[in-house]
Amino acid sequence: MIYHALTKKHWLVLAILAIAIILASINPLEYPSYMLHQIGTLLMLITLFFCLKKIGLTFSSFLLYILFLVIHVIAAHYLYSYVPYNDWSIKYLHFDLNQAMGWTRNMFDRFVHLFYGLFLYPFFYRIFQVWLPSLKPKTLFLLVIQFVMATSLFYEWIEWWIAIGLSPEEAENYNGQQGDIWDAHKDMFLATIGAIMTGLVSLKAATKGNHPQ
User: Fold this and answer.
1) Phi-psi category of 19—alpha, beta or left, where left has phi over 0 and alpha has psi -120 to 50?
2) CB of 116 closer than 8 Å to CB of 154
3) SS3 (DSSP) at 58
4) Domain range list for the chain
5) Shortest CA distance to 30 belongs to which of 165, 171, 157?
6) Where is the chain membrane-spanning (predicted)?
């Protein structure tokens, strides 16, 4: 079902995001960098509401979009590079994720880029589906994958543009590169992989005669 206005369940999901923003805004590790990330949150919310009104969205695409923002907000509180996910894993699951995977850096920023592709694919698909209604699902699939790749690249450009105006320490905190010269490349790759994963599931549903997303 396509919605063009907010319903009770939409407001409930937005309330979860609002709570996440309130909690994340309490003593973030570095307030200026946190606020820079939250500008992105605001712009994404404006885009979401605009598209909901103009073209309509399924509740699932709306939900996944907001869940991505919740993850982003949590990451912003910890400057992405310092999210204690491994400490949480050890404390609550008694499992050292970093040790098991052989990771020597904080990988939460990688997770966020992966979820960008995984969770926002349905939203992007809807935009192209309305804009280019004559295209077949396989063509739309390829377009969305390319769009995720292009927007990931654009985001890395924005990060670079902002970072060159900051001090080296501030730039490192904002970018979360953690000394990896291939950080941007890996982030873009994971976003692409995430989009392909969700896209293949959606494409399979579409070929069976169901409406994707």
Assistant:
1) alpha
2) no
3) strand
4) 2-207
5) 171
6) 12-29, 35-52, 59-80, 111-128, 140-158, 188-207
Strand pairing report for 57-58 and 2-3: antiparallel
CA 150 vs. chain centroid, Å, equals 14
Structure tokens at 8: 């009770």
CA atoms of 40 and 194, how far apart (whole Å): 20
Listed in sequence order, the residues at least 6 apart from 13 whose beta carbon sits closer than 8 Å to its beta carbon are 62, 63, 66
Q: How far are the Cα atoms of 24, 85, 202 from residue 114, in angstroms, in the given order? A: 21, 16, 17
- Report phi then psi at 2, rounded to 5: -95, 130
Strand partners, 2: 58
Q: Sign of the CA dihedral 15, 19, 21, 22?
A: positive
pLDDT digits (tens, 9 = 90+) for 157-177: 877 777 676 666 665 655 556
Crossing angle for the helix pair 108-131 and 183-207, to the nearest 10 degrees: 40
Q: What CA–CA distances, in Å, run from 160 to 113, 149, 153, 183, 203?
A: 16, 17, 11, 12, 34
Smallest Cα–Cα separation from 66: which of 85, 46, 39, 45? 45
101 phi, psi to nearest 5 deg: -90, -10
Mean pLDDT for 143-168 is 83
